[in-house]
Amino acid sequence: MPPFDDSARGLAPAKAGIALAALLAGATCIALSPIWVRVSETGPTAAAFWRVALASPGLWLLRPVARGPALSATRAHWKLLLAAGVAVALLGYKSFVTNLSYFLDVLLVLFIPWSAVNLADYFIIRRARYDVAAFFAPGGAYGNVAWRGLLAYAAGLAAGRDFVPWLRGLKAEIDIEGPLSRHGVERAMLPRLVDIALADVCQHTNPRPCTAADFERLFEQAL
After folding, report:
1. In the prediction, which pLDDT does 150 show?
2. Model-level pTM?
3. N or C: which terminus of the chain carries fewer CB neighbours within 10 A?
4. Domain segments of the chain: what residues?
5. In the 8-state DSSP scheme, what is residue 201?
6. Separation between Cα atoms, residue 141 and residue 133, nearest integer Å
């Protein structure tokens, strides 16, 4: 294990604790974003725009503090990322829900073992003692490739390779797949289902307030 650099280049445990607290606070705000959108009384698209627009000045002001090798991307890199984002949006918008479901499945498979490796390294192995500058130094204290970390990640991927098939099998086993008509729902039942949906406390967290007509149209499409 590389020695911890307690100089200005390193990340002291106290600062690491502050960074972790900020990370958890940000993740909590992101998780609660549907509620914030509902409280804002704006549409989800407008709320998404203002989240980025209002955060951009603060992030720009923090650039001098966070400046380093990690922020050295060239204009060509940014243009490539922008082009890739636009291409994915144009290709996938017609089947957004299906593509989002596939994307979330991929995230589950890839990021669960990745998170486990990082959390184990942070809390158990190194105990938040890192030389951050050495991350970006070619041939530095951590080497060019973290083979042990990659091996642990590969083991996690191998252990979780059956997770998504298991999840899909579970959905089939408890019979929640297919249209509503497959489960005995008829058009005459829709008014009652609309009343139940309107009374459900969860619908108050929707990014946009839903009316009875919205729910009726949703149920008709699900038949």
Report:
1. 92
2. 0.48
3. N
4. 13-31+68-175, 178-223
5. G
6. 10
